[in-house]
């Protein structure tokens, strides 16, 4: 059969045209220079062998170099992990110092510095939602400090509110604290800045850029300094995008502090000398407590809209804002047809403004960020109504209210406020959106309350480091464990048979023996599974 098979293969090869390769006949004996040709052939073979040997040596050297490098890397990793435990505290301290400037903990620390160093604390409120900009923790810390500190409320952005609504709020707030009506100057230029000829953003020049209420506030503070017979320090505090830095710039007349639409531009205490008797202390914004409702967190918390992770928070904030506004007024303001939910509203607004992704899909996330910036900035005109009944918070007793209003000429303050309101160009009530305020916003002033989040983060870090170390050492010990596993398996199999033999021979007379046998079976279940399930012949156990 084999011969027939080979014969068939030969026939098929002949048909296809494949023939056997002919053997090299070599150099015929009659050929001239036969010896020389043979020598050249041998020399070629030797050269090829030498080349092959060199290549092998080079490969071996490369492998040895790689092995040495891997060994050095492994040794360096082991040293780093051994030294990392000692230097972990130092490295964490360095990273914490670098990250400390942008952390909530540092914001609280700097804010507390400003409160402690100031004689008068100006709480800046947005005139569109003054009650939502008030922080009860801050007011309680100032009023209950025991020192002779004064708290003054400053209603900023009064040009975005109807005149009647502004007067109502001034009458409501002055019963608790001295209140100043203020409009900070916009488009403030820095004298040190060079003129740049680059293309700038389009600015609405129809709105006035002059400051209103600055003379009233300066005179109010100077009179208080004269009664105290000393130079006073005035701390400016409030939630983000309320206008703290722009207020200081308006009083100074120069852009002394950085100002921007982004939240949390000011990150540390800044001292600005307005005159010889008054120093203004700019502070970072108050951090909104996470226990607040969605509306307060959307308008008052520090949200970095440039990050992708904050898109869910931004959408929730826009939803909360729309739920607290009149739907018809929002449709009229944005000139958008009727919408069923927030996503549909954002999609319509994105289509109107031409903010589309690939395929004509509306860019909902980016339009939500822009809308949130518009509502926190000075672009949209809306107003909220003051509460119907005057109910001061529990920390504000009549004695503390009288103490806060001491040493101030309140009659002159009322006259100056009336003058500023009359000189102001306010929007009509029809063009302003009615907004339902959610009440006071709780804030975290004490640094200890923010430490809990940081400590949890550190614990997570240490836990991850411990897991990495365990993984590394298990990987390095895998080779030794593989060698030991075979020996352990053989020993385990010997113990299995011995235990099984004892169980068969020992009679179950006493209850103790039965309990012991049940305990041993429960322990050896995991080992017996392999022996019971595998019906193959076990050479190791029989050999032993």
TrEMBL record:
Residues 1-97, 456-544 are annotated as: Disordered. This is Guanine nucleotide-binding protein-like 3. Residues 108-289 form the CP-type G domain. Keywords: Coiled coil, GTP-binding, Nucleotide-binding, Nucleus. Residues 503-512 have a biased composition (Polar residues). Residues 456-489 have a biased composition (Acidic residues). CDD domains: Nucleostemin_like. It comes from Chionis minor. Pfam families: GN3L_Grn1, MMR_HSR1. It is found in: Nucleus, Nucleolus. Coiled coil: none annotated. GO terms for cellular component: nucleolus.
């Amino acid at each position: 059969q084999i011969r027939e098979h080979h014969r068939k293969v030969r026939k098929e090869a002949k048909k296809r045209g494949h023939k056997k390769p002919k053997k090299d006949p070599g150099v015929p004996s009659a050929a001239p220079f036969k010896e020389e040709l043979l020598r050249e052939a041998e020399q070629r073979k030797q050269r090829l062998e030498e080349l092959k040997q060199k290549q092998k040596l080079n490969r071996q050297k490369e492998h040895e170099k790689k092995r040495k490098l891997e060994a050095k890397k492994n040794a360096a990793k082991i040293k780093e992990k051994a030294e990392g435990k000692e230097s972990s505290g130092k490295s964490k301290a360095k990273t914490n110092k670098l990250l400390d400037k942008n952390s909530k903990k540092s914001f609280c620390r700097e804010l507390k510095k400003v409160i402690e160093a100031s004689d008068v604390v100006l709480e800046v409120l947005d005139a569109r939602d003054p009650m939502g900009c008030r922080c009860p923790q801050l007011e309680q810390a100032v009023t209950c400090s025991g020192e002779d500190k004064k708290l003054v409320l400053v209603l900023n952005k009064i040009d975005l509110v109807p005149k009647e609504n502004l007067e109502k709020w001034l009458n409501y707030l002055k019963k608790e604290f001295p209140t100043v009506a203020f409009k900070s100057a916009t488009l403030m230029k820095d004298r040190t800045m060079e003129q740049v000829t680059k293309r700038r953003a389009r600015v609405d020049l129809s709105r006035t850029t002059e400051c209103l209420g600055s003379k009233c506030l300066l005179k109010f503070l100077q009179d208080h300094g004269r009664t105290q017979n000393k130079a006073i320090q005035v701390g400016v505090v409030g939630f983000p995008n309320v206008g703290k830095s722009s207020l200081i710039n308006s009083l100074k007349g120069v852009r002394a502090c950085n100002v921007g639409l982004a939240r949390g531009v000011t990150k540390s205490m800044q001292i600005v000398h307005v005159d010889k008797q008054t120093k203004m202390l700019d502070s970072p914004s108050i951090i909104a407590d996470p226990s607040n409702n969605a509306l307060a967190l959307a308008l008052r918390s520090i949200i970095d809209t440039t990050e992708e992770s904050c898109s869910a928070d931004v959408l929730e904030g826009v939803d909360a804002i729309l739920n607290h506004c009149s739907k018809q007024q929002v449709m009229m303001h944005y000139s958008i047809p009727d919408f069923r939910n927030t996503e549909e509203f954002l999609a319509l607004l994105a289509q109107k403004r031409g903010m589309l992704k690939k395929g004509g899909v509306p860019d909902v996330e980016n339009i939500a960020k822009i809308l949130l910036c518009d509502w926190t900035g000075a672009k949209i005109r809306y107003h909220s109504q003051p509460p119907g009944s005057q109910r001061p918070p529990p920390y504000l007793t009549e004695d503390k209210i009288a103490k806060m209003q001491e040493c101030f000429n309140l009659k002159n303050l009322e006259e100056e406020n009336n003058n500023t309101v009359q000189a102001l160009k306010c929007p009509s009530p029809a063009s302003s959106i009615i907004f339902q305020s959610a009440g006071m916003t709780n804030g975290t002033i004490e640094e200890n309350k923010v430490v809990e989040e940081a400590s949890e983060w550190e614990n997570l870090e240490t836990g991850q480091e411990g897991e990495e170390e365990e993984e590394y050492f298990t990987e390095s010990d895998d080779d030794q464990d593989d060698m030991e596993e075979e020996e352990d398996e053989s020993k385990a199999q010997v113990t299995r048979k011995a235990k099984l033999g004892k169980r068969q021979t020992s009679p179950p007379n006493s209850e103790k023996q039965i309990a012991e046998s049940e305990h041993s079976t429960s322990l050896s279940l995991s080992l017996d599974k392999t022996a019971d399930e595998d019906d193959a012949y076990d050479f190791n156990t029989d050999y032993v």
